[in-house]
Write a structure and sequence with these properties.
Elements (H helix, E strand, L loop, with lengths): L1 H19 L5 H10 L3 H37 L2 H19 L9 H5 L5 H13 L7 H7 L4 H27 L7 H26 L1
């Protein structure tokens, strides 16, 4: 149970960190301001863009969860221990390879004028094509405990990610200066790596 709780907590933390990355919400804020979108329109577009991001992440996570479950059925409880080691390895990789995300600032989009429908399609497509790869290793490890835990991780990730992105866009569109965005952008891999390492260590000793 403690190991499962660590996977759930790790998923929520990674969802929060990923939502804070500026390229997940800042371009939308910039376009909404430049195009003069109403608050209701901004919220609607943000929801569908965040949903697309969650769907691609969860779809890949479910596949990895099924793989984890299949490995457990074949190799038994040892898979859980191997999954913990993999979390630590992935965490070290993410911490070492800290490539920052890049975002488009307001000046980059002020010169563009698209139809609202095209903007919606663009944001949805971009978010769908950028799943949170860091969290996928947690889905793989969760598969060793069964698809119920994988499903729970999917729900946790979806709720936290969509809520987080919508809150950030709402605050940004109202002119609230969001602190820490630059730090998150340049240290997101390191933060994710630390989370994965901690979850892996906890899962290893509590498995």
């Amino acid at each position: 149970m403690p190991a499962m709780l660590s996977l759930i907590t790790g998923t929520a933390l990674l969802a929060i960190v990923h939502a804070l990355i500026p390229n997940h919400w800042l371009p939308l804020v910039a376009v909404a301001r430049a195009e003069g979108w109403r608050p209701r329109e901004v919220n609607l577009v943000t929801f569908f863009a965040a949903l697309a991001h969650v769907l691609s992440t969860v779809a890949l996570g479910l596949v990895l969860g099924l793989i984890g479950q299949e490995l457990r059925d074949q190799y038994g409880s040892a898979v859980g221990m191997v999954g913990s080691v993999l979390l630590i390895v992935f965490g070290l990789i993410y911490y070492t390879v800290n490539l920052p995300h890049h975002h488009h600032a307001k000046n980059d989009v002020d010169g563009y004028r698209r139809s609202k429908g095209r903007w919606v399609m663009l944001f949805v497509l971009l978010m769908f094509l950028s799943p949170c790869l860091e969290v996928e290793s947690l889905f793989l490890s969760a598969g060793a405990y069964g698809m119920q835990l994988v499903t729970l991780l999917s729900i946790v990730y979806a709720v936290v990610s969509i809520s987080g992105i919508m809150v950030l866009v709402h605050l940004g569109s109202r002119g609230v200066k969001l602190l820490g965005g630059h730090f998150i952008e340049h240290n997101e891999k390191r933060i994710s790596g630390v989370v994965l390492i901690l979850v892996g260590i906890i899962s290893f000793f509590l498995h």
